[in-house]
Amino acid sequence: MTGIIYARVSSIGDRQNTERQIEDLTKYAENNGIDLVKVFSEKISGAKKNNERAVLMECFEFAEAHSIDVILVSECSRVGRAIWEVLESVKYCVDRHIDMFFQKENLHIFDDNGEVNPFMAVYISCLGMCAQIERQNIMFRLNSGRKLAIEKGIKMGRKVGSTKSREQKESEYKDIIKLLRKGYSVASTYAIAKEKGIKCSISTIKRVKKEFIM
Description:
The chain is of the alpha/beta class. The protein has helices at residues 19-31, 54-65, 76-79, 83-95, 118-151, 166-172, 174-181, 186-195, 202-212; strands at 2-9, 35-43, 70-73, 99-102, 107-108. The chain folds into two domains: 2-116, 3-Layer(aba) Sandwich (Rossmann fold); 166-212. The chain contains nine helices and five strands, in the order βαβαβααββααααα. Strands 2-1-3-4-5 form a five-stranded mixed β-sheet, with helices on both faces. Strand 1 (2-9), helix 1 and strand 2 form a beta-alpha-beta unit. It is globular.
């Protein structure tokens, strides 16, 4: 059985590091006959969306490309602080039949027979219910704020002329388009762009890929 480790801490400075997570998960792999192929580690807030976390996206892409059996994670919150980000990660793995193990919760996505773990299913269902309630609360606050703004005479929506044409976007993101056309993945394109000082997010690269490459 092959496995990879994904470790994350929120602090970018020296106050936190992923050493303990990696050490604990490495011991787990050794004790359970898992051949560790690679370790993915990043320092980024768990409040960030999945598609804004380059290392997490690279981890998923690597697991799929190399037919990895299991992704080892210290605890559920390492995958994401927002419930729906955790759900998105679990769904990604379920759709591709990649197991994920949360050490703190002692839960696998799949059981020994390759079926979705019933305990994980219940756990995810509870998370889904909490996520739905949280979404409803967010929508209530957004709609309330929008209504108040309209009552005060504030105009909503984009400013006139703020939408970019295809030609403008092609010129602005020409370096990103070149990398994507060379066959680089979204995560790799993001990493290269960051090294070159090109400001763009993973979500932007995905939009550019959808519009100009696919």
